[in-house]
């Protein structure tokens, strides 16, 4: 079995992101939840400071982390602070929760390239 990687991304309503990302080649599984907030067991009614996020398990031999991030930037607008479409609030912010130093570096490089492109 191939060595899988895990990514955690926030970019608006987690159901919409999950629906788009889980269809990508190389994605093995996804699950939605809350992360980055103030309590250890967030729920729908109690998630102070948390973002709606999606955890993605993927095969890097099929899709690289960079490929995943490039798709992430195609499906949401990171320039709208605390909002995606009609969803408004800090729960809908754009955030990358890297799981390794390599992912951190890839995220920094990808963000710089997206900003430089003017998209």
End-to-end gap: 38 Å
Structural class call reads alpha+beta
What's the number of helices? Answer: 3
Beta strand count:
6
Average pLDDT number: 90
- CATH homologous superfamily (4th level) name: Peptide methionine sulphoxide reductase MsrA
Number of domain modules? 1
- Give the strand content: 25-35%
For the CA atoms, what is the radius of gyration? Answer: 14 Å
| CATH C-level category | Alpha Beta
Arrangement of strands in the largest sheet: 2-3-1-6
What is the overall silhouette? globular
Q: Characterize the biggest β-sheet.
A: 4 strands, antiparallel
Order of helices and strands: EHEEHEEEH
CATH topology: Peptide Methionine Sulfoxide Reductase, Chain A
Contiguous uncertain segments of 5+ residues: none
Structural features, described:
The chain is an alpha+beta fold. The chain has a single domain, classed as Peptide methionine sulphoxide reductase MsrA (Peptide Methionine Sulfoxide Reductase, Chain A, 2-Layer Sandwich). 30% of the residues lie in helices and 27% in strands. The chain has three helices and six strands. The strands form two sheets. Strands 2-3-1-6 form a four-stranded antiparallel sheet, with helices on one face. Strand 4 and strand 5 form a beta hairpin. Helix 2 crosses helix 3. The longest helix has 17 residues.
